[in-house]
Amino acid sequence: MLPVLREGVTENMNRDVVIDIQGIEKTYNLGAVTVRALRGVDLTVERGSYIAIMGPSGSGKSTLLNILGCLDPPTAGMYALNGQDVSGLDDDEVSAIRGQYLGFIFQSYNLIAQLTVLENIQVPLFYQGKDLESYRDHCLAMAEMVGLGDRLDHRPMQLSGGQQQRVAIARSLVNDPVLILADEPTGNLDSKTGVDVLDIITRLNESGKTIVLVTHDDHVAERAHRVLHMKDGAIDREIVNRRPEKEAAA
Predict the structure, then answer these.
(1) Among the residues of 29-151, which ranges form H helices?
(2) How far apart (Å, rounded) are the C-alpha atoms in residues 76 and 21?
(3) How far apart, in whole angstroms, are the C-alpha atoms of residue 62 and residue 64?
């Protein structure tokens, strides 16, 4: 069951806004050293957007992605996800939010080696306590969508890197998330396979999914609607890419 809005948080947040963060800070205390990984970040992302986050190592892009994914709480500031303030929820409440709203695609795929393709796709449903058999057809459809309908019984070690990333994409979609977070999704792939994976992500965005992607590759970022460049824990600048003609005319 999802948590209710906390006192002081209104119900009339804009439902067309998936991400609304205000003054987000993240500080790590490493013994005698204090590291300010994020310094007052503000960001609004509308439903159906495609956002790329770039920046040098240590700029805060991965920290920001972890906070957006409710994997790491902010030290200060407000984060509303799909109209729900998640800034200070407890672990159980945050887990429910992740299962309801979020899908993840990682550079290293993060598949479970002992499970088959189908079983890996089912993992988010398992953690939500769903009856897996009743969702079998849905999971089969996800596998078919990413071109792995004939690999259902294969395990990760029997798949290429591109195929493993396709499994990860199918897994990210199985709970019909409002937001998909991708961390260097083509980082371990050759250029051709990377393009194939990016094509899938682009089609997902064209179908209405909101995408936030971290990358160091300009060719990956140029597919996004907005490119955020981070520096020293803050958004240093933003580039708005021209959308394709068919999208601009919609």
Answers:
(1) 61-68, 91-101, 117-127, 136-145
(2) 11
(3) 5
The whole-number mean pLDDT for each consecutive block of 10 residues of the chain, a chain of 250 residues, reads 37 73 94 92 96 95 95 94 89 90 93 97 92 94 94 96 96 95 94 94 95 95 96 95 52
Helix (H, G, I), strand (E, B) or coil at 118: helix
Give the Cα separation of 220 and 217 in Å (integer).
5
Report if residue 128 sits inside a domain.
yes
Give me the CATH number covering residue 143: 3.40.50.300
By 3-state DSSP, what share of the chain in percent is helix, strand and coil, each rounded to 5? 35, 30, 40
The pTM of this model reads: 0.87
Pairing of strands 33-46, 17-30: antiparallel
